[in-house]
UniProtKB/TrEMBL annotation:
Gene3D superfamilies according to UniProt: N-(1-d-carboxylethyl)-l-norvaline Dehydrogenase, domain 2, NAD(P)-binding Rossmann-like Domain
Keyword NAD tagged: yes
Record-linked InterPro entries: 6-PGluconate_DH-like_C_sf, 6PGD_dom2, 6PGDH_NADP-bd, HIBADH, HIBADH-like_NADP-bd, HIBADH-related, NAD(P)-bd_dom_sf
Family assignment from sequence similarity: Belongs to the HIBADH-related family.
E.C. code: 1.1.1.31
Source species: Nakamurella antarctica
Positions annotated as active site in the UniProt record: 170
Domain (6-phosphogluconate dehydrogenase NADP-binding): residue spans on this chain: 2-161
Name listed for the protein in its UniProt record: 3-hydroxyisobutyrate dehydrogenase
MF annotations from Gene Ontology: 3-hydroxyisobutyrate dehydrogenase activity; NAD binding; NADP binding
Keywords: Branched-chain amino acid catabolism, NAD, Oxidoreductase
Pathway: Amino-acid degradation
Domain 3-hydroxyisobutyrate dehydrogenase-like NAD-binding, chain residue ranges per copy: 164-289
Length: 297
């Protein structure tokens, strides 16, 4: 089956590359020349436009930063809906607001195509390793068609319900991630200042009631966890600006459902301060440098 992939950045690039390694033909497009160069090196056929990438595709994946980018790629004059064959399945793995996801389901269906909202969790490491968690909103039959491709990229696939429910699950999950990341950064700094060995404490906490995904995967002390961005001067990984975006989506959902989200508000404020100070493109675990005082805000 011919696959098109739109958005070949830190997440989309390795996800598409895993499909190539599994024996699939993938044609991709991205606005960033460096992303296209990396994609070509991974065996992805590089297209000159969205329209060219999706022209003969039987399934189209998108992985883009924001809802407005998804809307543009879907609905533009040379976008997906103007270029693919009737009935084509479109799978959006971007993290966007729930209302937009549900609008896309309606618009894509009305145009004669099919749509799944399929955001992921697991970060760049999971994208490279093919161990992402997919959260799927949409019809059973559409998920069944996408499932063989999702399984190449996933450790787990969860069907969370109808239109928009994948995004709902992702927003809540990443809200919890942001809060636990803040706790991990504060805990790491406090543990060090109390004289605890970082590696020993991280192992202890990961086996105890303080366990969390960021503690196990992103522990922000150099040399403790191989996958942690602190070992790379916070380059790559999950950008602060993206964490801020996801927390903003959660706060909007909290407002619309009249749900108090005090801890999410605090984490959102920390991310906003880091962006204002010029650290938006750094991995969000750079928050530890705000906690330890290296970054004065």
């Amino acid at each position: 089956m011919s696959i098109a992939w739109i958005g070949l950045g830190n997440m989309g690039g390795p996800m598409a590359a895993n499909l190539v390694r599994a024996g699939h033909h993938v044609t991709g497009f991205d606005l960033n020349p460096a992303a296209l160069e990396a994609a070509a090196a991974a065996g992805i056929e590089v297209a000159a436009s969205v329209a060219e990438a999706v022209l003969s595709a039987e399934i189209v994946f998108t992985m883009l930063p924001k809802g407005e980018h998804v809307r543009s790629v879907l609905q533009g004059p040379e976008g997906i809906l103007a270029s693919v064959a009737p009935g084509t399945l479109i799978v959006d793995s971007s993290t966007i607001d729930i209302d937009s996801a549900r609008q896309f389901h309606e618009q894509v269906s009305a145009a004669g195509f099919r749509f799944l909202d399929a955001p992921v969790s697991g970060g760049v490491f999971g994208a490279v390793a093919g161990t992402l968690t997919f959260m799927i909103g949409g019809a059973d039959d559409d998920l069944a068609q996408a499932r063989p491709f999702l399984d190449v990229m996933a450790g787990r696939v969860f069907h969370t319900g109808g239109a928009g429910n994948g995004q709902a699950a992702k927003i809540v999950n990443n809200m919890m991630l942001g809060i636990t990341l803040a706790a991990t950064c504060e805990g790491a700094v406090l543990a060090e200042r109390l004289g605890l060995d970082a590696a020993t404490f991280r192992t202890l906490a990961s086996s105890s009631s303080g366990d969390s995904w960021p503690l196990r995967t992103w522990y922000p002390v150099p040399g403790v966890v191989e996958t942690a961005a602190v070992n790379r001067d916070f380059e790559g990984g999950f950008a602060t600006v993206l964490m801020h975006k996801d927390l903003s989506l959660a706060l909007a959902a909290g407002e619309s459902t009249h749900t108090p989200l005090d801890f999410a508000i605090a984490a959102h404020g920390r991310m906003a301060a880091l962006i204002e100070a010029g650290y938006g493109d750094k991995d969000c675990s750079i928050l530890v440098r705000q906690v330890d005082g290296t970054i004065q805000i």
